[in-house]
């Protein structure tokens, strides 16, 4: 089959072919631009992902440090609580001793400490074991303490006079 093409038809076909080529170049350019844009987006997303991973790794390292500090602090807190509990027990024991010693007296022999007793009756019984009778006591105001053979004095008063804190 032979087809006869006229010059006008050939010019129209050439013009269509040139238009198609031009359109193909435009589409190829648009595709290249889209591909380049896609590559930029992939590159940017990859960089963002790497930065996020680096930040996450730094945050994990910081969290490990904070966890270690928290564990040490919790151990110190447990030690402090144990110490507070121990000190509270000691304070309770000392408070009990202080309560027991509130009425305590000292037995002095010629002004020197001989013994400490819970109360006056206990001090008199102890002194009686040395042969001191009920009439062997002299009041502190009559003569100097050093001249009295036996003397009973409140522990609190004697402690302040002998070296305790007078304030």
H-E string:
HEEHEH
**Overall residue-averaged pLDDT value:** 84
Which structural class is indicated by helix and strand composition?
Answer: mainly alpha
Q: Give start-end ranges of low-pLDDT stretches.
A: 163-167
Into how many domains do the coordinates divide?
2
N-to-C terminal Cα separation, in Å? 136 Å
Q: Number of helical runs?
A: 3
Radius of gyration: 53 Å
Beta-strand content bin: 5-15%
Mass-distribution shape: rod-shaped
What about the largest sheet?
3 strands, antiparallel
Number of strands: 3
The helical percent reads 55-70%
Query: Which strand order does the major sheet show?
Result: 2-1-3
Outline the structure in words.
A three-stranded antiparallel beta sheet has the order 2-1-3. Helices cover 67% and strands 10% of the residues. It has 167 residues and is mostly helical. The longest helix has 95 residues. It contains three helices and three strands; from the N terminus they run αββαβα. The chain folds into two domains: 93 residues; 60 residues, no CATH class.
């Amino acid at each position: 089959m032979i087809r006869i093409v006229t010059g006008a038809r050939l010019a129209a076909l050439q013009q269509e072919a040139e238009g198609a080529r031009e359109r193909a170049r435009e589409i190829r350019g648009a595709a290249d631009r889209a591909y380049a844009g896609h590559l930029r987006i992939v590159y940017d997303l990859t960089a963002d992902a790497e930065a996020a991973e680096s930040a996450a790794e730094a945050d994990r390292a910081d969290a490990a440090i904070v966890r270690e500090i928290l564990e040490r602090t919790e151990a110190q807190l447990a030690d402090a609580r144990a110490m507070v509990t121990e000190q509270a027990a000691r304070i309770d024991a000392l408070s009990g001793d202080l309560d027991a010693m509130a009425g305590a007296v000292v037995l002095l022999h010629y002004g020197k400490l001989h013994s400490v007793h819970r109360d006056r009756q206990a001090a008199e019984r102890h002194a009686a074991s040395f042969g001191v009778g009920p009439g062997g006591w002299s009041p502190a105001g009559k003569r100097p303490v050093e001249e009295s053979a036996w003397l009973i004095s409140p522990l609190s008063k004697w402690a302040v006079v002998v070296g305790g804190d007078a304030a």
